[in-house]
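To fix ideas, we now present one chain and its tokenised fold:
***
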Amino acid sequence: MTLEALGRHPLRLPILALVTLSIGLAGCGGSSKPKKDVAYVARDVDTLYMAAKERLDLGDAKQAAALFDEVERQHPYSPWARRAELMSAFSYYVARDYAKSVQAAQRFLSVHPGNKDAPYAYYLVSLCYYEQISDVRRDQKDTKQALDALTEVIRRYPATEYATDAKLKIDLVNDHLAGKEMEIGRFYQHSGKWLAGTIRFRSVIDKYQATSHTPEALYRLVECYLALGIPQEAQKAAAVLGNNYPGSEWYGRAFRLMNAKAPNTKAS
């Protein structure tokens, strides 16, 4: 199995990566020890790599990452060093130490940009950001980083299953970003800053029209335009809402609102 094959089961990376990067280790000796293993003790590369793998097998991902780092530190010119770099990134990912996982993966890519495992490294970076996507009420820095990283996977490796999975994840990322725009727009609206709210709701419609937030964004535009005294624009937003989401709750509310506030320009 190659690292490219991991894309078939992106959510099962912890199991599959061990199989992939353990090839060639059969028959290697060595045993793992508790936390003191990270102290510098000169060991042959096979023993050190096996110790790291065993810690990962036992669920001690952070200790495993430290040991994989030792492989690279003690044997920088060994073929195992390249594998250890990527396994270190993976181990930090399993341990949910996303910052170190990204650093390790990016270090691997800087040294081995054309390596056959580069697609997996890019994908791992995108997963680290993706799994940090926070509630829409918080800063969306991680969400934007996830979008950039996922887009990079698709751009560089469009024919891979990593790209296929990245496309699915981008849908959720866009929904989060649209949700943030909606939250800010509603805040401006409730503060009486109708124009500022309009800009945010327009952003949702222009940039994230395929998300679940679009019907509400159109309705909020109807409210804002009416509050700004431009019922013709409100009617246009209501018409778009009716054409695209005729059975939605938001269109029903827009229809009633137009009837009440601007009956001469009501949505049809």
In short: Residues 1-37 have pLDDT under 50 and may be disordered. The CA atoms of residues 61 and 95 lie 5 Å apart.
